[in-house]
Each structure stands twice: as structure tokens, then as C-alpha cells.
Amino acid sequence: MEQTQASAPGKIILFGEHAVVYGQPAIAAPVTQVRATVTIANSEPAGVRLIAPDLGKAYWLTEAQEHDPLARAVRLVEEATGSTLSQMTVTVRSTIPIASGLGSGAATAAALIRALTRHLSRQDLASDEQVCALAYEVEKIHHGTPSGIDNTVVAYEQPVYFVRQEPKNLIEPFAIAAPLHLLIADTGVRSATRHVVGDVRRQWQAERARFEEMFAACGRIAQAARTALEAGDVMELGALMDENQQWLEAMTVSSAELEKLIATARTAGALGAKLSGAGRGGNMIALVTPETQTSVRQALIKAGAFDVFASTVE
Ligand code: PMV
């Protein structure tokens, strides 16, 4: 049986979440320890069968609900290739936790689009740029008004400096000078990006000047962070993470659970810590060194982190 497989990593936003929706620069990095993997296989029966064994789901494309992200991704590939797919099974597996700011939706979409376009021998549509563009269309289901940073970092699988702009987003994958040792700790609180982004929008509409100042401050932090990443200046990066967290708190997207873990990490020796992603739950990230990693991790677990894993961004 002919099979094609592709995968995409999880992601974290290092700097600039929320402000990125309003055109400010942000930096995201892939988290390669967790991945979404999609396998396409030719099969006998007519139609496209969508299977997500981890979620205990299996259904036909024609039966999919209106906002089903897997079905949307398949339809986008059908549109892009001008074909109607049939006699195919699409199996999706993922080790990326759902709704916790690690980009599971974007990674699943990118892996599916890459696997399917390769399976159809459409290498022209399987490029990072094309996968990024199609995955963005799927992201709209999850996010409402996505900035595009999630689909970009998972499609390029490299640290990326990103600015949402017309007619084309600025996408600059870049090399970082020294590996970043991060701990990613889950509050265990699920938070829907769409709701948090919508709430920030309402606050921005009510208090435009104040919010735009905060977004601009986050943008300046992201710019400074890029310089620090390219110079391997981890002390500066830690300070910038703390500063970014203050602005996120002012935007009301932090939470008591996040702040408890952030304070714990700093006290235990992290160089800096902040929430990552939409906030109000999900994950926080702490910048550590190989020397402090174990003690910070233990402190986070003791403070009630749901799950803590180490990720090195290189
Ligand atoms: O919740 P996440 O990790 O998918 O991140 C959302 C990032 C935001 O900046 C809040 C929204 C966006 O579309 O960029």
C-alpha cells in the first residue's frame, strides 16, 4: 500500500504574543520533542476517511462538521490541486497537548497539508511557504483572527522573526547563537486562543491608545530579543522575558496559575519566565541553564505544574 508521511513540531512563542496580531514583531520557535504526524494511505473504498486514533475519532470527509479542521485542510488541498480526492485514508497522530499554547492545531494542519501534497506528487505545494499559506487558512477556524505566526513557525521548523503585514507577512527564519535551554510548564488550565484574542480586541477597542502603547512596547522587546538571540546573550533574554510578561499581565492575559509558576521559576534560579501563547492558562516558559534546569523543574512540579518538559531551541 502506498503511504506518505509528514510531521510538524509544536511551537512556543518566545516574545510578542497578542501584540503580533496588531502588526508588532514577534519571535516563535519550534518545539521538536512534540510533533503531529500525518499518514496518507491509498485505500479501496471510495471517499476520504479521516482517522484520529488518539482522539478515538474516525469519519468520512463528506460527514465532517462544518468547522472540522482536518476536513478543512483536505478541502484546501483539493482546491489547490483542482482535484477531488477519494480512496484515501488520512491518519493523524499527535503528541502535542491540545489547547495549551503549543500550536497543536497549526502543526496538525501543516503535517496534513505536507503529507497530502507530497502524496499527490505536488512538491510545488509542499514547500514551507505553500504549507504555511494553506495552514493559515485552517488556523482561522481555531483563532478567528490569527496573526499567522503559529502556522509559520511549524511550517518552517526554525526560530522565526515574524511581522504580520500586508500584502505579505515578514517571515525571517534566523539562527540563534547559543542554544536556549527552556522549561515548558503546563498550568493544566485549558484556554481557547480565540476567546482570549477576542477579549484583547474588545479591550483595545475600548482603550486604543493604551493598548497600542503596550503592543509597541512588546514589539520593541521582540526586536531587542532578536539581537540578544543572535548574540547568544541569555542574561539579556531572561530580562526581556520578564519585561514581556509584565506587559502581558497589563493586557490581562496572564492568570494566577501562570503567575505562580513564573514566580516559582524565577525564585528557583530561572533567568527569566513568561507565559507563552494566548495565556489565561496553557503554558509558561522559563529560561534556564544546564546547571539550574533540574532545580527549576523540581520547583515547578512542587508548585503544581501539570507537566514540565525541557526543550532546547537551537
Ligand atoms: O495560543 P497560541 O499559542 O496558539 O498563540 C496565540 C498567539 C496569539 O498571539 C495570542 C494569537 C496569534 O494569532 O498570534
Secondary structure: elements and pairs:
Elements: E1 3-15, E2 26-42, E3 48-52, E4 57-60, H1 69-81, E5 88-94, H2 104-119, H3 128-143, H4 149-156, E6 160-163, E7 170-173, E8 180-186, H5 193-206, H6 208-231, H7 234-250, H8 256-267, E9 272-276, E10 283-288, H9 293-302, E11 307-313
Parallel strand pairs: 3-5
Antiparallel strand pairs: 1-2, 2-5, 2-6, 3-4, 6-7, 8-10, 8-11, 9-10
Helix pairs in contact: 1-2, 1-3, 2-3, 2-4, 3-4, 5-6, 6-7, 8-9
Bound molecules: (3R)-3-hydroxy-3-methyl-5-(phosphonooxy)pentanoic acid.
Structure description:
Helices cover 41% and strands 25% of the residues. It is α+β, with helices and mostly antiparallel strands. Strands 1, 2, 3, 4, 5, 6 and 7 form a 7-stranded mixed beta sheet that branches. Helix 2 (104-119) crosses helix 4 (149-156) and helix 6 runs antiparallel to helix 7 (234-250). The longest helix is centred in the C-terminal third of the chain and has 24 residues, at 208-231. The chain is globular and about 60 Å long. The chain binds (3R)-3-hydroxy-3-methyl-5-(phosphonooxy)pentanoic acid (PMV). (3R)-3-hydroxy-3-methyl-5-(phosphonooxy)pentanoic acid is lined by residues 13, 17-18, 20-21, 101, 103, 143, 146-147, 149-150, 193, 197, 277-278.
Provide keyphrases for this structure:
314 residues, alpha+beta, seven-stranded mixed beta sheet, four-stranded antiparallel beta sheet, 11 strands, 41% helix, globular, binds (3R)-3-hydroxy-3-methyl-5-(phosphonooxy)pentanoic acid
